Amino acid sequence: MATEAHGEEAGGLVFHPMDQFMVEPLFGADVSWYTPTNVTLWMLIAVLTITGLLVVGTSRRALVPSRSQSVAELAYGFIYKMVEDVAGKDAVKFFPYIFTLFMFIVVSNFLGLIPMAFTTTSHIAVTAVLAVAVFVTVTVVGFVKNGAGFLGLFWVSSAPLALRPILAVIEIISYFVRPVSHSIRLAGNLMAGHAVIKVFAAFAPLILFSGIGILVTPLSILAITAIYALEILVAFIQAYVFTILTCVYLRDALHPSH
Amino acid sequence: MATETAAAHGAEAAGHAAESASACVGPSGGAVGLPQLCGEWMPNQIFWLVVTLIVLFLILSRVALPRIATVLAARKGAITSDLAAAEDLKAKAVAAEDAYNKALADARTEAQAIVAQNKAEMQAELDAAMKEADAEIAAKTAESEKAIGEIRAGAMDSVKVVATDTAEALVSALGGSADAATVKAAVDSRVKG
Questions:
Q1: pLDDT tens digits, A97-110
Q2: For a designed S-S bond to A11, which of A153, A209, A256, B145 qualifies (C-beta 3.0 to 4.6 A apart)?
């Protein structure tokens, strides 16, 4: 995809829609596992943003909240209610874990919308770790809470007996596909949106090279604006979807009966 | 954005080509293939993600979430206690209204009782006065009747005396002599009849 784009430099236009996802070291040239890179930088910015909102913003502990405290309380109430409603009352002890995931994803998604920013959650390596962490947590919790009874999740007792083994195979496959879809959904959505914005951005300077640019440039700027608006929606919705799916999986672990 | 990065890549390109023969960075400094699928960048991302998540989890679970929970609980408590206080005050207002109404009703019944009592007293007084007046009237009537009776008896006696005298005079005038007893008996029988 990117290699093709490199080849086509039509009329001086430069297409590098994927370069925005490159991991670059902050110092030096090599990237080893501990090198501070733009990943580190943007994750640090995310941590600082969240801390600013949830710790500094609530430092007055006001009975009548300030704006930042309102946002913090809103986020708290939103996720708390989601965990309680979707995963059940006994899932509330996982609330800090789920809240951490949600805040990290939603803040990273929105930080990624800043021009020139690096979107950490557009990387499959990042979302896969998040999804695998959820998968492992859910599986461990399921077996610890229910013992072998957790396997009842795969044995659809409401189906006819003859169908149950087949359904069990399907259920097991779908269970193991969960982390894949869980992670690719998030990374894919963000990557696609950012790449599309970049492609339209590459068309924008056409007016400098060609007469048809009079038509193309305003259109591409309009398209960037529209896609950006869509991406704002996606940034929140994907964080929401990731979190609510985590709650759904957690409910399965706590109450495996269908 | 695109042009800027392109310029940057141009500058970097020489460096990259010379220093690191990375499988994910092309000769022009751009990405080769999908950067997301570049295996040599993944350990770095995973490492920093894990560090970030642990730090974030500690900050949130130790500081931010307990604090927000406390604030929310305090607010809920304040609202609940305010509501309770309002309920209390409302109950007090209702009690006060009840007391007022009760006092009003009491006063009314008392007033009615007083009115009835006064009426009864006046009636009794009136009755007594009436009785007294009746008695007086009866006494006066009796007295008058007695006086009339006396007058009547007096008149009867006078009539007898006059009749006897007249009868004696008539008898003597006619040349008879009448003894007094016979005349009296005759007069008596005539007057009675």
A1: 999 999 999 999 99
A2: A209
